[in-house]
């Protein structure tokens, strides 16, 4: 049970301590100390159930079947989350709902069915030249200069 408490995040520790009627303010190590002290002092079965609930919410126990791994576009951990929760990436930001594999990893069989994007989205016109100015150096061109279309002239 103490390992479960030690694996909780700050927000989950705050929920647990608030549920137990304890002070939920402080740094993570302080909250962890309070939660472990609560556990050692003998907490009620309701608090123990709350610990298990928070742990299960943090680490879902759904097993991933081989068929789910084979389905493209299905993310197994996202499917195992309860409704209303979003999956977070390693940096704490919301992860995309279905990961896209690079075309090179899909193999030649799958490449034929994918629509190809044009490699050059903007037409390159030789009439557009960038003027060199003394206050900056051009290291490289990321996008070739293009003319504005007739409907975009100002």
UniProtKB/TrEMBL annotation:
Protein name stated in the entry: E3 SUMO-protein ligase PIAS1-like
The record's annotation in SUPFAM superfamilies points to: SAP domain
Q: Which residues form the SAP domain?
A: 5-39
Q: Which GO terms describe its biological process?
A: protein sumoylation; regulation of transcription by RNA polymerase II
Q: Name one GO cellular component term.
A: chromatin
Gene designation per UniProt = LOC113052360
| SMART domains reported in the protein's UniProt record | SAP
Organism of origin is Carassius auratus (Goldfish)
Could you cite one Gene Ontology molecular function of this protein?
Answer: SUMO ligase activity
């Amino acid at each position: 049970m103490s390992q479960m408490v030690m694996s909780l995040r700050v927000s989950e520790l705050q929920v647990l301590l608030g549920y137990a009627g304890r002070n939920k303010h402080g740094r993570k190590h302080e909250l962890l100390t309070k939660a472990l002290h609560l556990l050692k002092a003998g907490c009620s079965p309701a608090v123990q159930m709350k610990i298990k609930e928070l742990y299960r919410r943090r680490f879902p126990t759904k097993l991933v079947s081989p068929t789910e791994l084979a389905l493209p576009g299905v993310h197994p951990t996202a499917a195992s989350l309860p409704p209303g929760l979003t999956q977070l990436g390693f940096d704490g930001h919301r992860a995309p709902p279905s990961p896209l594999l690079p075309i090179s990893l899909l193999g030649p069989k799958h490449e034929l069915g994918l629509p190809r994007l044009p490699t050059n989205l903007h037409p390159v016109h030789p009439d557009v030249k960038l003027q060199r100015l003394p206050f900056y150096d051009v290291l490289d061109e990321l996008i070739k200069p293009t003319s504005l279309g007739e409907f975009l002239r100002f």
